[in-house]
Amino acid sequence: SLLIAVIFSFSLGQVAFAADANTQVSASPQWTNTDVVSTSLAFSGSEGSCGAYVLGKTGTTEITGTVVLERKNSNGTYITVKTWSGLAAKADTLIFNSTYYVATGYTYRLTITATVYRNETSETVSGYYEAYAS
């Protein structure tokens, strides 16, 4: 199913989800409604390319989600830099892509939290990826 997700993302022109060093792909056999959760974060100077992808199992009717970009402080805590809320797809695939400018010299974490609706049940899943903006 991971291969299908990557191929599907390429067919949509969403190259941010290629399985490379800037992507974290999660798949859990414990998930009931979800096949894949993927996050992608890469920087070119202060320009951050943020991406997230959630693939529901066959029969998924809706996916809702929130994506959060956080900056890691020197003491190891995180501060929210940007939140994209209200994301939704009336199908089995939720794709998010955005660009956001940040201060360089920090590590950033991009997290997606999504709820996947299928067969009159729902489950909440999440995934994240960290990258350094130099």
Task: Provide a concise account of the structure shown.
With 134 residues, this protein is mainly beta. Helices cover 7% and strands 63% of the residues.
Largest sheet: 4 strands, antiparallel
The helix count comes to 1
- Average pLDDT figure: 88
Q: Unreliable runs, pLDDT <50, ≥5 residues?
A: 1-19
Order of helices and strands: HEEEEEEEE
Residue share in helices? under 10%
Total beta-strand segments:
8
What class do helices, strands and sheet pairing give?
mainly beta
Query: Strand order of the main beta sheet, please?
Result: 1-2-3-6
Strand content: over 45%
Radius of gyration equals 15 Å
**How far apart, in Å, are the first and last alpha carbons?**
34 Å
Q: Based on CA inertia axes, which overall geometry fits?
A: elongated
Structural overview:
- It is a single chain.
- With 134 residues, the chain is mainly beta.
- The chain contains one helix and eight strands.
- It has one helix spanning 2-11, and strands at 23-26, 34-44, 47-56, 60-72, 78-89, 93-101, 106-118, 121-133.
- The strands form two sheets. It has a four-stranded antiparallel β-sheet, with no helix packed on it.
- The protein is elongated, with a radius of gyration of 15 Å.
- It starts with a helix and ends with a strand.
Descriptive key words:
mainly beta; elongated; 134 residues; 8 strands
Record the SSE blueprint:
Blueprint (H helix, E strand, L loop, with lengths): L1 H10 L11 E4 L7 E11 L2 E10 L3 E13 L5 E12 L3 E9 L4 E13 L2 E13 L1
Antiparallel strand pairs: 1-2, 2-3, 3-6, 4-5, 4-7, 7-8
